[in-house]
Amino acid sequence: MSVCIRIQPDILNIPISERERIITACHGRERLADLASGNPDMAMPDFVVEQLRACMESGYARYTDYYGLPELRAKLSQQLKGEWRITADPETEIVITSGVQEGLYVVMRAVLHSGDQVLIPSPHYGNYYQNAIACGAKPVLVPLDEKEGFVPDLDRLEKAVTSRTRALVFCNPSNPLGVVWPREILDGLATLAIRHNLIVLVDEIYHDFVYSVQPITSIATLPGMAERTFTFGGFSKSHLMMGLRIGFVVGPSEPMIAVKNLHYCITLCPSSVAQVAALAALDCPKEQLELVFHEFRQRVEMLHRGVATIDGVSCVKPEGGFYLFPNMSRFGLSSIDLAVQLIERAGVITLPGTEFGPYGEGYLRLSVCATREQLEEGLARLAEFADNWA
Amino acid sequence: MSVCIRIQPDILNIPISERERIITACHGRERLADLASGNPDMAMPDFVVEQLRACMESGYARYTDYYGLPELRAKLSQQLKGEWRITADPETEIVITSGVQEGLYVVMRAVLHSGDQVLIPSPHYGNYYQNAIACGAKPVLVPLDEKEGFVPDLDRLEKAVTSRTRALVFCNPSNPLGVVWPREILDGLATLAIRHNLIVLVDEIYHDFVYSVQPITSIATLPGMAERTFTFGGFSKSHLMMGLRIGFVVGPSEPMIAVKNLHYCITLCPSSVAQVAALAALDCPKEQLELVFHEFRQRVEMLHRGVATIDGVSCVKPEGGFYLFPNMSRFGLSSIDLAVQLIERAGVITLPGTEFGPYGEGYLRLSVCATREQLEEGLARLAEFADNWA
Questions:
Q1: A37 burial via Cβ count (<10 Å: 0-12, 13-18, 19+)
Q2: Domains contained in chain B, CATH given
Q3: Would you say the ipTM is above 0.90?
């Protein structure tokens, strides 16, 4: 009998990204300017590095509490109360996860039932779609319109609701769009969620990177929302701790019991070293974080100024996060073909907008994670490519 | 409308351990001797700590390859070929995971279909059972008998096979039993797996801790087995890197595509810092590892000698790993009641055998992870408790 390992159908259906074509196009080419990476070139704040060094002195790396060190959850609860205005009991409403990615998966797998529909305003971070599929649910993409500043149209969202709609998932500030949804839109989303008894999953990994004046509103803080909202955050972006894989999820205590059980099954406990870094992150002197904040803000503004001057290219002004999502439809190419041509003919790596769903067609995602020199070089190459295209 | 977040039925069914009663019993008691912990008291080898310190100098913690650093997979492939006799292509047959726990989950979720039956020789590590439930599969416990040295009876296993049996999961060397299954038994298991077209998942996290003379056989190396076997390993035990959460899974390339996709959804990438430690682990001078090996071996032998002399207590001689599984039925108590009494009346923490399934009733799991002083104290208290019992 031949071996035939049949894959579970939901897992078999997880869509694979087209990124392979980008990687292939890069192969063997040198001195490419990288406007694609989500991996900032900066080191962690000194304070965090110092605490990690001290932790290494002991040489111990032991299992911790399954759901995160109690002192980390307690300190995080204080920070959430102060800066996010979220009230969360450290014992019952917070779990420390191996990054937002793990958090999203364990919550989606715990609360989504086979056949449930999940509303995803789109273009969107691919993981929301993949996780919905991996849970046997049906992602329903609701288009965000550039002309509306990539802010959701509440009527359009409402029309997408059916009797099977169970959850709404979004990212604020947005990866890949760079926009921050204002309070009144979040009020509207909250009303919609309550009216249709939806669970809300909000990825706030870029919470600390809001460049517009207004402070960001966490939807969990709106009336009636704490009991139906899971808020995801982490230290990967704010403290350049991407590689340490440490984040958290906050949610209502009763469903969090199931989330905790699944988290234990998958993770056992979060990394002890990463938790030391997270504790340090919460104590990190503000001025060290402001350096990071201002650097990203300036990079985003610089890249936006440059892109907006390219003839025929439009770009919603980014208000948060690390990304821009310019409309490149004037080139008359699919996003993936344009991205490949940019690598091959201009030496610039970008991501096709379609990496973030079909509504990204005609767009590119640009990131400011590379060094300033690379960003400036990439911008100059983009502009030259556009000049020569006409 | 009131909020009702219904939990997905499989996730709702994940069984919760009774460990709460143990934790409660310990509460407020001081100077307990800990024979329960799976958290060794030893620090990582100096070589690993040095490499981690050097890694901290840069202050960078960046995302890596989703499936692990290519140089780590390449080096691991060499080690597997040399010491485990497993041939594994680093590109298609190895994924670096956040510990064995993540590996077990992603493989089980990828290959188990709802209603599939999973054979688990038992007493067993609880996660195998929990993951089967979390995947909507049905764990089928097949008892291991102390009189048979906790080595599986192949006829008994064969009788448990039905048309819905899909996989066999076991741990070798065993947690919690401390035994190492010999080559002839693994041959028998391989024959059974091939005859019934079963997938085999083997947890070899204690691979480096075999105290018997014969080298351990990885079932994946037996004829016809590589194509149906997933082998799990890690650095948590061999290099005291429990808290770094880093391990690996090796499996056949085609199903590994789905495993990789799910791993990406959950993990994005393994910790960069933990991967630096794993690379160091693979280059670690043998003499540093031998210190760890000999320490555990001596502790296991010491604890076994002591336990075996307690009147009316029998204990299969441990041949690998960190644990002993003595038969405590002479006390006439359930395992959990005995464990609680041992805490309250003797000041010794142990785990009830029923933490490892119902066939653990009448047994305790003792571990050698605490310091020698604690082990000796714990042993003395156990003996005194037994003396006073009569």
A1: middle
A2: 9-44+287-389 (3.90.1150.10), 59-283 (3.40.640.10)
A3: yes
